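[Meeting: bench + compute handoff]

Bench side (C.D.) handed over the final construct sequence. Compute side (W.E.) agreed to return the predicted structure before the next meeting so the bench team could plan truncations. Sequence as handed over:
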Amino acid sequence: MKTAQMQMSLKWLTENVFPFWIQKGIDSKNGSFVESISLDGEPQSSPRRALVQARQIYSFVEAYKLNMIDLDTVSAIVEKAVGSLIKFYENPRGAYIHSVDVSGQPANQDLDLYTQAFVLFGLAQAYDILRKEEIKHEALKVLKYLNAERKLPAGGFSEIKNNEKMYHSNPHMHLFEAALVWTKVDDDPRWHALTLELCDLCLNKFIDPVTGFLAEHFDEQWNPLRENGNFIFEPGHHFEWAWLLLQYEEVTGLKLMEQSQKLFDLAEKFGVSPDRTLAYDEVWSDGQPKKTSSRFWPQCERIKAATDLGQTAVADEAMQSLFKNFIIFEKGMWRDTKLASGEFDSQPVKASSLYHIINAISVYVGTNSKD
């Protein structure tokens, strides 16, 4: 069954997804990626987030590694996208703003940590393909900004939205992800130092020592924010952190399998529907569901973690459920959210989700290797 599922998912990406997103998902005027596409197949005029630019750079690079796009094609796409990212989103301080409108004018000038993490991630993917030193230079400017202006006394970095300072684990997870990619494509010790710091933050601050759950929202001392004694955890992020810790173990040799398995098991026990088909969006730290809706991306993270932890049956189950519930096969598109009612939220197809699905399929089929 897995072989058939693998072949079907690769066929979908090759024949339906990338031809469609190359045609409809790239702005021919400046090489940037559109934010979303309607279910009728038309690009939307909504502001374009920097994180979408970064995620789509990854998606196209991964498509090349999966032999879906040739090197010349992907290099041209990525080079234009990187140029657009730097031109329209870079702030004079070395950071990147949240989003611009379709003409390239600033739409949201927040320098949120989530955006900086994904810019570093996208630049690492571009550097892997193009090997241009100016790309690394841009990444190091972001890192310098973070260390100079966003560093926290208790470790990690601040999140800023609407001029409000906050403390979240999620952007650190993606910063960890970005730094891990940089350690694989560049031997600068600053990337290794960053991964070590973020791994330590995860293990010693983000994971609650009493319950074992990894919290989302904190105070400035990295104490989980609670409501009626409980804090929120997201099963999708449990799966994602579990997978990233395994990646870090592979890079460093640090033994993290046990902790990865714990995060996975907790998400499976408390964060998956009774019929074992869908991961929920949010759960309280007492194990009670907070939001029983199911977004697209946690299903993808479940596939990745299950695959690399050797939970083959779970990975197969999650992949089948993903395609059954979310994928619009013939159109090369997907639905984002299955509501608690069982109905789907009607909204345009988010370009940002391609990053999740191609990553999940790449891990599932085990062929992400032209490195």
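W.E. noted at the follow-up: The domain at 2-365 is CATH 1.50.10.10 (Glycosyltransferase). C.D. will use this when planning the next construct.
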